Model the fold of this input.
Amino acid sequence: MRFTLRHLNNIALVLVMALAIVACGDDDDADNGAALDTIVKTALDDGRFTTLVAALQAAGLDDDLAGEGPFTVFAPTDDAFDLLPAGTVNTLLLPANQALLMDILTYHVYDGNVLAADAIALDGQTVTMLNGDGMTINVVGGDVVLNLGGNREATVIIADVLGSNGTIHVIDAVLDPADAP
Done:
């Protein structure tokens, strides 16, 4: 079988998507240097963050996080939200709980751009998240673990998903602001 440059580009794209969330535009043209999407659009297009995007929309934060930034978002997957007790997500999405939802969601956002190498350098330190609470970053066996030993510690499972206005680090649990030191 003869592979053209277009075939090789498509194969490479599939491999990259299998390994990480990709912020890509229309791949039919195989554009080199295509502009990155915002972190919200990247999460929306990915398909593994439907609960997070719904929560951002319910809290009215989707437009804010689509803004200029830069932001670093520690993004729990749908599977991470599924680990919460039954009914928790539906309760948080109620308009009466918008303030609590905003607190939880902004606890997943850092005001600034932090790449994985920067996060590793913060081993043992506490950073202030967008909601004003502290989050502890530890490196354990090469993994970045957030709020180690807390009620809901989370591990970064995919790092450095770049967007036009910041970076997404995919995590395996929903962080709890009550874990703030």
Notes: The beta strands are 71-76, 109-111, 125-128, 134-140, 143-146, 154-163, 166-171. The radius of gyration is 17 Å.
